[in-house]
Structures are given as structure tokens and as C-alpha cells.
Amino acid sequence: MKESPEVKKLGTTPLTREAFDALSRRAPKDKVLQKLREYAFTKIESIPFVSNTHPLWRHTKPELFDFGRVLSASPTPVELQVFNGDSAVVKGVELLNSTDVSSIPDSIVSELFFADKNSIDEDASNYLQLAVTLNTAFLRVRKNTDVKEILRLSYPIEAEACQTPLVVVLLEEGASLTLFEDLSGGKEAFVFPRFEIILRDNTHFNLVSQNRLEEDSRYLARHRLHAGRDVNASIFHSMIGAGVARLDLECRMLGSGTALDIASVYIADGHRHVDIHTVQDHLFPHCRSDLLSKGILHQKGRSVYHGYIKVAEGAQRTDAYQTNRNLVFSKEARADSIPNLQIKANDVKCSHGATVGEVSEDELFYLMTRGLSKVEAENLLVQGFLDEAIMRIKDETLLSLIHEQVMQRIEYDRKGSCENI
């Protein structure tokens, strides 16, 4: 596929007023969405577009994404199903798509995008996503609803398509939900979604998000979680697909007593490039966040991890931890890890760490003396390395599924070595 010429114009947006108006004519007649898109386009006009000198784009060059393709963005309805089932009807749960009706309430849009300023949103690519969004979905779980079923959220990803959905999930007070986001297929696609999760007080939420897109696709996602008081949440991302994949994950603690468990695994092999940016934003006291991100690299694979722990002045008694670990199988592979702390309170426990290491020859030798072949020994070490993160998935069904698919991705049971990842 030929790249759009706009991709070469670093620092300039591909979205002109004429192109924006043309997209608007294809968008749903949703006044709330129209207001948001117009706001985002105005912001794009007022700030420079992303370039190689932008602090959040120095390691993942903007030209890796063909931003010019947003001009051909197409609306795609978001689908909701019970995991391993056909029914999407669950008491206390509703999903609205803007392709049918106005979906996201105006008050929610104002809360998410107009209430306060967020520095990461000053990255023009985030405004670009909102400006070219042609479909929104609003998933609401009603107050005190305990959803026993796993709900699977997905949208069909067509070959060579550019898809830019905006998904908002709202758990009202006392609700609980386990949500599985499953993305697969999409030959030569550009998948450019935004995912906003609002967790009101006393909610329980588990998210497992899986990227299994085709190798020649591009994935650029922005996920934000807004957690109220006494929230318990687990967030897991499996980044094993797409030739270039970037995830921006921001978790904001907006009430005391909240606990967040955040984990991810990724594989960068061949010429794949994986980039994960995280923010653990502690705005209230007595909150905990624990992040673990682990990756496997081989051949000319490249990974970038950029993490921030932020603790506001009044967020005393914060516990915040951030760990990134990489296992490298090739001298040509490269892993960059940039952890950061920004602490304005004085009664906190915060730490961050990062490692990049190779497979231990001593461990391989030990396992081989116990009767394992080199392939089996390597696979066992890889499994043990990634399992530390995968085991953080709270739901046993999803844990088993992710474990199986990750092991298949690294060809765990294939005769060969990890050099064939």
C-alpha cells in the first residue's frame, strides 16, 4: 500500500478545513459528536502537529503512522456480546452507537473533554483522533448492577480501512463489570481508537484488552481511566499484533481509597515496533497503583516504554509502583525504558524500575541437564517470564485465553527455537 503524501509533512496536520468538512458530511447526525469534533479540530489548528522533536514522539517517529489515511476514515459500529455467547442483552447494561442514535450524553462529554486541561491531550494526535471520529459508542452499567458475565467488546476491522471509534464506558456507583476488548484481523488497516472509562465510587472493574491485528497494520490507541472513590480495578493489555503499535494509557485516581492493578505483555519481533506510554496519576490520598509491563524482543524488534507516576500535593499515603522488564533474544533488538516520577507529597511510597536482559545461559544449561531440549528450555523461560504479568488477570477464563494466545504467538509448541519468534 502506498503511503499518503501527508505522512512526510512532519509537524503539519493532514486535516484541513476542507477535509474536515468532507468527513463531517459522512458523520452521523449526532449534535454531541459534532460539537466534540469541531472542538478537536479547533485545537488542532492552534497547536503544532506531532513531530520527531515532540517529547512523547522521540522514540516512535510519527512517520511510522500514515496519518494521511484519516481522511478516508469510515464509521464502524461497536459490538457487545456475552463472552462465548450470542446474547448482548444483559440486565442493567446498555450500549448505544452513534450510527443509530445520539450515544454519549452531553454531560459525559463535558466531563471528559471540557472540564479540565490534561497535558497529554496537548499531543495533537489525540485531537486528530477526536476530530476524525465518525462513530461513538456509550456502554453504561447501571447503579449497583453486578454483571456476572464477561462482556466482549469489538468492532469489525476491514482490510486497508482506517477506523477511529470513540468508546465511553460508564460504571455507575456500586456496579461491577469484566470487559474483554478483542481486536484482530485488519490487513493493512490503521486502527486509531479512543477508549474512555469512567468508574464511579465503589465500583469493581476488570479490563482485558487484546491487540492481535495483522502484522502489516498500524495501531494507535488512547485509553483513559477515571476512577472515583474506593474503586477496585484491574487493567491488562496484550500487545502481540500490528507491525507498529502504540498505546497511551492514563489512569487518574479521583477519589481516596482506590486501588489499581495495571499489567501488560508485548512482543516485538521481525521489524515490529511496540510503544507503551503510561501515567499513574494520584490526585487523592490513600490510593494504590501497581504497574508491571513485560516484553519479549527478537530479530530487529523495537520496544519503548515511557511511564509516569504523578502524585499531587494533597495525595498523601500514596503507594505507587512501576516496573518494566524486557527479555531480549537478539543483539539487533532494542528496548528503551524511560520511567519518571513527579511527586509533590511527602508521605508516599513510590518506586520505579526497568531492566533489559538476555536469557541466562546458566538457566538454560540447568534445564537442559534435566532432560529438556534447548527449545523446550527457552520456551519454559519465556513462559515463566511473561506469566508474572499474565497472572495478574483476575478472571480465570480470560487468563487462560490470553496465556494460550500469547504462547501461540511466540510459537511455544513449535519445533525450533525462540529465534523463530
TrEMBL record:
Coiled coil: none annotated. Residues 160-385 form the SUF system FeS cluster assembly SufBD core domain. It holds the Pfam family SUFBD_core. One of its GO terms (biological process) is iron-sulfur cluster assembly. It comes from the Bacteria. InterPro entries: Fe-S_cluster_assembly_SufBD, SUF_FeS_clus_asmbl_SufBD_core, SUF_FeS_clus_asmbl_SufBD_sf, SUF_FeS_clus_asmbl_SufD. PANTHER family: PROTEIN ABCI7, CHLOROPLASTIC. This is Fe-S cluster assembly protein SufD. The lineage of its organism: Bacteria, Deltaproteobacteria, SAR324 cluster.
